[in-house]
Design goal:
Its cofactor is Mg(2+). Belongs to the P-Pant transferase superfamily. AcpS family. This protein is of the alpha+beta class. Helix content is about 45%, strand content about 30%. The protein has one domain (about 5-130): Ribosomal Protein L22, Chain A, CATH 3.90.470. It has helices spanning about 15-25, 25-30, 35-45, 50-70, 100-105, and strands at about 5-10, 80-85, 90-95, 110-115, 120-130. About 30% of the residues are buried.
Length: about 140
């Protein structure tokens, strides 16, 4: 295996809260994939701050992922084509959809993601490496 790319991002949750106030759910719907959207709604219904932290952490992780693959937010990388989900253990992982999933698989890549948050900030770190072993 070889490192393909590394990305990191820090997100100010107060900024995300202001965007949500201005744009409502449109911002979350544009940023979150289908499974993430369901988790966001569930967490926000239980406690608004938990929904905000979830949205901020996913925004940050997608920024990190886009940096690690070297595309930024250009096709085939889109907000909704990249989901940051959690295994039952709580460990986050990346699930890709559509053209982005095809692009990623074609290059035989895998992603590793970690997230952390505090009251006002969330931070993410993504390492993308190659699955292929060269002789």
């Amino acid at each position: 295996m070889a490192v393909y790319g590394i990305g990191t991002d820090i997100c100010d949750l107060r900024r995300i809260a202001r965007v949500l106030e201005r744009k409502g759910d449109r911002f979350a719907q544009k940023t979150l994939g289908p499974t993430e959207w369901l988790v966001f709604q569930h967490r926000r219904a239980r406690e608004a701050s938990r929904g905000l932290a979830y949205l901020g952490s996913r925004f940050s992780a997608k920024e990190s992922f886009s940096k690690a693959i070297g595309l930024g937010m250009r096709m085939p990388m889109t907000w909704r084509a990249c989901e940051i989900l959690n295994h039952p253990s709580g460990q986050p992982f990346v699930r890709l959809h559509g053209e982005l999933a095809h692009w990623f698989a074609e290059r035989q890549l895998q992603a590793h993601v970690t997230l952390s948050d505090e009251s006002d900030y969330t931070v993410s770190f993504v390492v993308v490496d190659t699955l292929a072993v060269t002789p």
